[in-house]
Amino acid sequence: MFGTVTPNLTHLTEKQKAEYKSHYCGLCHSLKDTHNNFCRLALTYDMTFLSILLSALNEPVQTLVNCNCLFHPGSKFKATKSDCSEFCANMTILFAYHKLADDINDDNSVIAKIGSKALKSNYKSVADKYPELCKNVESAMKKIFKLEQNPTPLTGDEISAIFGEILGQVFAEHAIFCKDYMYELGFSLGQFIYFMDAAIDIAQDSASNKFNPFLQTEHLKQYKPGDFATAKEYYEPIDKVIKVFKNARIYKTLRNYLQEILKNYAGKVMLSFEQIPLASSEEILQNILYEGMWASFNLKYKTPNNALK
Fold it and tell me: How many domains does the chain divide into?
């Protein structure tokens, strides 16, 4: 469900790119220092965003260090570390552990079972440090799993609210100031991430008969699983196969329908974000929220040159 809150690097200055990367590397090294090298595989853009946001709000004492990169041996990088990056390292483990548990429930994934076992002791250390937060997340994930077993047209709204509560609590936990605003931002961002993830996975979920909130709506119940193929499958043979015209129109209708829903949730994210006073990094954070978090949707639902207009 994570990987949505990314920057649009093409619209950042070189200085801003360097600042973003230093926080990204700082979170990676905080994962190593707080846990171990294996845990660095759980690194996400989403928790990098939270690390930058908390640093801009709390103004903690930061350390800029030159460090080696596990994934780029021989290269040196600058990493910004603070209590905010340490907190986000712990939250990275929290979400990674529950993501693996979700994969086990959904697919009985062997890889997820191995990963979950490897992270078990790290998750326990996070739970010992943040017992109430971890207890709330565990309870919320159980509610989500139960709701997905017996879906209704309202299930998506219920689950998005639960996931919003999870992210809201995480965003507010380490904030020194504006805890209410941080909760609101986390809540609205959690809802956006949930529905964005569903929008990206709609074809796959339809084909495999998995729960997807959009597939429960009256608007989409009229379509068959095969109607939700990829843009490439719809558009490339458009001049050769007449049937594709129907699919292309379905695809365009789907894209517009999903985009309008996501815009509504994105608007709530922006309103919440604008309430938070930041001492730094505001343009980077705006870049992520206004542009970057749409990257996966724009890539998935891009319109090829030969698409139907």
Answer: 1
